[in-house]
């Protein structure tokens, strides 16, 4: 048996190549859109990708299953049912239906040729290191009402069946730490069933009602694009990925694009954007979280233009956007366009910073409004009594809820998400937006706990 894990750190997602070195056949499971990596890896070890499949309809990236099959001629093995068996040469993959995270979710139990027992399981978004897949996405992201609790009960039943497998079974999950597909994922790439039985909170609960309550509690706000990915992965992408190198735009094009309210994304660090930027642009720094926040605040039905420190940054950003189906990157600028904009007499925007002490003084007089863009679980742990709560994942669709007439102070936990939120507000024309330096972590005053409205 040949086995290789592929990990996309910006999505915290894993996909797998499993092959039989005797027959030369291989299967790819949970491919993302960057299909070159699988084709190249298989060729490097003399394997031919004969099959491709996935554990479930993904919500956090565009599936590469269709594209990979079109490129290689591989057979797409979907849909699958409990008890199905896939033979890749002499390597056996047994299908176990594990509903809960999604109704159609399956895992693959892998047995090497001639081995007396299974070697491992590719568990997708069913069992992670230290956690299990969230069962609330159909309700919270796709708006299928009333499904969260029933899915949680399905997940509980799936776990009871899974825990009866051999304790030495290796577990290779579909996501790692940083994914929004669970709430407490570990960073290790793999684990064993025995280790999870000893350490995974979800496998310690024997009462269904308790499990349902705990698994639904504290789940992060699903990024806005998750619902779009579900639709795309059911029917296939609407368009081809953006070319890796979007065209370089002349500096003179910036003004007309701004006049047309084009979506222009500044990829620089938040402090650089706060110090000087072209008004009307949105700041999403090119960090590990870039795809998540881009999918939460950028439109899928409009062209996107990028401002980056260099060509490498815009190429990287274009790749990241393609992974989540944002395929309308129409052009790029270098950061020097900001200096040339200033030299030509264009206005330069800034984002004012406010510290916790100054905010406390302003709140006593009612001089500012406060916007908290953290997730619901963070809000429940403690928030300012005066704050309005709009998670960053929902902000772009709720700009009408932003109060007018006073300066807006935006905060998150430490300052990263609030910097993005502040740029979204200023780009939409909301004046006098300020960012709380250090976020709520810098606040020393009293907080309100629980779900009460401010």
What features would you describe in this structure?
By secondary structure, the protein is α/β, with parallel strands linked by helices. It has 3 domains: 2-229, Ribonuclease Z/Hydroxyacylglutathione hydrolase-like (Metallo-beta-lactamase, Chain A), CATH 3.60.15.10; 239-343, 3-Layer(aba) Sandwich (Oxidized Rhodanese, domain 1); 352-442, Oxidized Rhodanese, domain 1 (3-Layer(aba) Sandwich), CATH 3.40.250.10. It is 30% helix and 20% strand. The chain has a 6-stranded mixed sheet with strand order 6-7-8-9-10-11. The protein has a 5-stranded mixed sheet with strand order 1-2-3-4-5, with helices on one face. Strands 16-20-19-17-18 form a 5-stranded parallel sheet. Helix 4 packs across helix 6 (208-216) and helix 10 (290-297) crosses helix 11 (311-323).
Reconstruct the topology from this structure:
Blueprint: E1 2-8, E2 13-20, E3 25-29, H1 36-44, E4 48-53, H2 65-72, E5 75-76, E6 85-88, E7 91-97, E8 106-111, E9 120-124, H3 137-140, H4 148-162, E10 170-173, E11 191-192, H5 193-199, H6 208-216, H7 225-235, H8 254-259, E12 263-266, H9 270-275, E13 282-283, H10 290-297, E14 304-308, H11 311-323, E15 329-334, H12 336-343, E16 352-354, H13 356-364, E17 369-372, H14 376-381, E18 387-389, H15 392-395, E19 408-411, H16 416-427, E20 433-436
Parallel strand pairs: 3-4, 4-5, 9-10, 12-13, 12-14, 14-15, 16-20, 17-18, 17-19, 19-20
Antiparallel strand pairs: 1-2, 2-3, 6-7, 7-8, 8-9, 10-11
Helix pairs in contact: 4-6, 10-11
């Amino acid at each position: 048996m040949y086995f290789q894990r592929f990990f996309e750190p910006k999505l915290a997602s894993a996909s797998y190549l499993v092959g039989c070195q005797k027959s030369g056949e291989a299967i790819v499971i949970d491919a993302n859109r960057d299909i070159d990596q699988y084709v190249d890896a298989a060729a490097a070890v003399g394997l031919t990708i004969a099959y491709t499949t996935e554990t479930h309809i993904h919500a956090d990236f565009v599936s590469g299953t269709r594209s990979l099959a079109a490129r290689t001629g591989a057979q797409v093995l979907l849909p699958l049912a409990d008890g199905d068996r896939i033979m890749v040469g002499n390597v056996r993959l047994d299908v176990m239906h594990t509903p809960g995270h999604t109704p159609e979710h399956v895992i693959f139990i892998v047995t090497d040729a001639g081995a007396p027992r299974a070697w491992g399981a590719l568990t997708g978004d069913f069992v992670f290191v230290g956690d299990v897949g969230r069962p609330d996405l159909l309700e919270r992201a796709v708006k299928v009402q009333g499904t969260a609790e029933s899915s949680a009960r399905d997940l509980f039943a799936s776990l009871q069946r899974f825990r009866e497998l051999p304790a030495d079974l290796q577990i290779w999950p579909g996501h790692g730490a940083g994914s929004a597909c669970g709430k407490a994922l570990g960073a290790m790439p793999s684990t064993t069933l025995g280790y999870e039985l000893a350490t995974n909170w979800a496998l310690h609960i024997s009462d269904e009602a308790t499990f349902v309550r705990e698994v639904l509690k504290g789940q992060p706000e699903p990024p806005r694009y998750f619902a779009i990915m579900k639709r795309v992965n059911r029917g296939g992408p609407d368009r081809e990925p953006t070319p890796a190198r979007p065209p370089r735009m002349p500096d003179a094009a910036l003004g007309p694009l701004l006049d047309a309210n084009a979506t222009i994304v500044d990829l620089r660090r938040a402090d650089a954007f706060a110090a000087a930027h072209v008004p009307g642009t949105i700041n999403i720094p090119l960090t590990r979280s870039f795809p998540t926040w881009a999918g939460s605040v950028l439109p899928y039905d409009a062209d996107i233009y990028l401002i980056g420190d260099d060509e490498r940054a815009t190429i990287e950003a274009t790749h990241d956007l393609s992974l989540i189906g944002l395929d309308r990157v129409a052009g790029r600028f270098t950061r020097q366009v900001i200096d040339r904009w200033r030299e030509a007499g264009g206005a330069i925007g800034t984002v004012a910073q406010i510290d916790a002490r100054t905010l406390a003084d302003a709140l006593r007089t009612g001089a500012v409004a406060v916007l908290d863009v953290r997730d619901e679980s963070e809000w429940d742990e403690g928030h300012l009594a005066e704050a309005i709560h709009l998670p960053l994942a929902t902000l772009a669709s709720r700009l009408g809820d932003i109060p007018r007439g006073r300066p807006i102070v935006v905060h998150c936990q430490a300052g990263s998400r609030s910097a993005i939120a502040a740029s979204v507000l200023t780009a939409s024309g909301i004046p006098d937006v300020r960012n709380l330096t250090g976020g709520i972590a810098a606040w020393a005053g009293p907080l309100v706990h629980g779900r009460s409205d401010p």
